[in-house]
Amino acid sequence: VSPAPSVALDATELTAGEIALQVEVNDYLDIRLPAGSYPLGLGMAGAVDPAFSRDLGARGWLGMSLPREYGGAGRSAVERLVVVEALLARGAPVGYHWIGDRQSGPSIAANGTDELKREVLPGIVSGEYSFSIGMSEPDSGSDLASLRSRAVPDNGGWRLNGTKIWTTGADDATHILALFRTSEDRHHGLTQFVVDRDAPGLTVSPIPFIDGTADFCELAFEDVFVPDHRRLGEVGAGWGQNTGELALERGGVDRWMSMMPVLEWWAHQLVASENASALTDLGSITARCWAFRGLSLTVARMVDAGRSAVTEAALVKEMATRFEQECVAIVSRHLGRAPDLGSPDPYESLLARAMLVSPAWSIRGGTNEILRTVAYRGMQPR
Amino acid sequence: MDFDYTDDQRDLRELSRNVFDRYPAEDARALQDSGDPVHSTKLWTSLAETGLLGLAFPEQYGGGGGSLFELGILFREAGHALAPTTLASTVFAGLLLLGHGSDEQQTLWLTPLCAGDLLATTAVSELGTDADLESLTTTAEETADGWSLNGTKAFVPNAEISELMVVAAKVGDVVEFFLVPARSSGVSMTRHATFGQDTQNLVTLDGVVLPLDARLQPDTGDRSAALAYAETRTVMTALQNMELLGGVEQVLAKTSGYVTVRHQFGRPIGSFQAVQHIVADMASEVAAGDVTAHHALWLVSAGRPAVTEVALANAWLAPAFVRTTVWSHQLHGGMGFVRESTLYLWSQRAKALELQLGGRRRQLETVADRIFAEPTRRR
Question: How far apart are CA A249 and CA B263, in angstroms?
C-alpha cells in the first residue's frame, strides 16, 4: 500500500556535524542559563529577554539559515532545529527573537527586495530586532482571507488602516510583519508590509490572558504610513507568502516541546517510583516525543531541500498540539491535586500555566479543524 | 423509575435559577480579580431567605426538610451559575454534622447555618495524604482542659472566611471529627494559590484547646466517625456530580450559542460539520452525565447503597466537564482565552472539581473494588 502521494516524509537523522553543534549549544547554555537563573517558559512562549537574544545572535545562532551577505550564517533549517531544540528543552527565554528567527527572517529573505533585506535581516541575526506577525482580525480568524485591514497607495508609500488581533509579542516587538488588503480579490488582493512597532498611528493594546500574561495584543492602525520599500514581495502576493511562512511555523519542534521542562521535572520525580501507571505514561510520552522529533527533523530536511512542506507541517502541528495537551492532562493527573500557579517550585507553577493555556495550543497558528482540511486537500492528487 | 422532575421539583429548579441569576459570571470574575475569597454575601442572603440554603436540613433547625434529590437540583443550578464554593463547603460540613453530631451540636450549628449566618468547612486532607483517613497525622489528645489538637490541614476550602471547621484528627488510632471555631486560639492559616476561583487554605492547629463536647458524637448508635464521614462524602460527591452536570450543560449552551453567531467563510461556523461534530460530542457528554448523575443521586436520596454508582457518575462527569470546556475553547478560538470573556471561569472550575473529593483515581478505584468484589461474592 503506497501512502497518499503528497505526504512524503522520509526518515532522517542528525549528521556528525549537526551533533557537534548540539554539543556546542548545550555546553554554552549550561553556562549561560544555569537552572533557576531565568523564568521558565512554555516552549515558544518563553520569556522576553533581549540581552539573551543578543547573546545568541553573537554566537551566530539566530537567523542561521539566512544568507551570509545579510549577516546570516548560511546554515540549514536542520542546524536551526538543533539550536532551537536545546533552547526549548530548557524553557529558555526565547520570546524576544522567536518569531523573527523562525519565520519573518526566512520569509523576508525569500520574498524581500535587496533593500529590505539589507535593512532588517542583520537586526534579526544579531538579536536586536523582535518581530511580530499581524494576521488575524476580530472577524477573520480561521477565515483569514476575509481580512479587511486595508493598505492604500499614498505618496510613494502606503496608508494602513484596520485592526489586528492575537498579535503575539507586539508590545515588545520592534517590527510587525502584517497582512493587508490591497484589492478586493479574496486571495490575490493581500499584501504584506513590515511596519515599525512605534510607527505614528499604530496603537498596541495587550489583551489580559487567562494565565495573567498579556503577550497577545490588539493592534489599531490609524492612517499608519509605510514607505513602499517596506512592502514584502509583489502587491497581491501576500497570501502565498503567508502560506509559505505557515509551513515554517507549523512543522517545528516548538509544536511538541512546550511541556519539556515540566516533563523532565516529572520524570525526575519518578526515578525511584514503583507507580506502574505513571511509568507507563512516561514511557508512552517518551515514545511519542521521539516520533514527533523525527517528523520535525524530516520537515526541516524538506525545507533544506527546497521542497514545500505545507501539508506535512499541518499534519505535524495537528498531531503534536493534541499530544502536548495530553501531556498536561497526564502530568496533572499524576500530581493528584490542582497545581499552584504561585508555587515556589517554578515547575509546578509552569504546569499550572500550562493547564490554563494549553487549550490554546490547538488554536494558535491554525486550528486543528483548519489543519485537517489543509492536510486532506494536500493529499489529493494534483 | 424515571427521574423526570415533579412539578414541585421544577418549581425548585426555577427558584434556584432565579436566585443564582443574581450572581452573573461577571460578578464571579470581579470577585476573583479582587483577590478576596470568592463569596457573595448578596447571593448567600438570597439563598437563606428563599430557604434554599437549609433545603435538606431538618425543619427544627430552620431547614426545609427536603430530600437530597432536591438538594441535588439546587447543586445543578449552582453548577450552571458557577456559584461560589462556599455553598459546597458549608453544606458538606452541615451534612457531616447531621450525620454524626448530637442533637445539641446540631441545634447549635445547623440553626445559624440554615439562617445564612454561618459559613462552615471540613478539614480532612493533609499534605501527601490524599484525604486518606488512615494516614492522617493530626492528633487530638484529651487533657485536663479538654481536647488539644495539633497538626496541619491542607487544601481546606474557604477556611479563612468560615466560622466553623469540622476537623478530622486521630485519638490514638481512631479518627474522630472535631468542631473547631475558626478563630480559636492556636489556629493559623495561609492561602494556597490555586488557579481556580476557589479559596483553599493551609490550616495549622497548634495546641488548639477545645471543650470535651467539641468531638462530633451522635446521641445514639455506634457507627464510627470514619464510616459517617465516608457516607457523607458519598452524598457530597453525588451532589457535586449534579454541580458538574450543571456546569457541563452551561458550557454546551454557551458554545452552541456562540457557533451560531460567529461567522467565518461567510456563514456561521456552526454550519461546518467539523464544528457540528464537536458540539454533538459535547451533547453526548451531557446526556450520559445527566442519566448517571440523577440515578446515583436518586439512590443516595432513597438511602440505598450507592457508592459505586456515585463513583461511576463522578468518573464520567468530572473529566466530561474538563473535556467539554476544552472543546468549547476550541470553538471559541482566541475569544475563549481572554479575561473579557468568562469561559475561562468554567474551565478553571472544571479542573478544580476534577481534583476534588479524592480525584479521579479514587473514583476509579472505588469502581474497580466493586468489579473485583462482586464475582468473588457470588462464587
Answer: 25
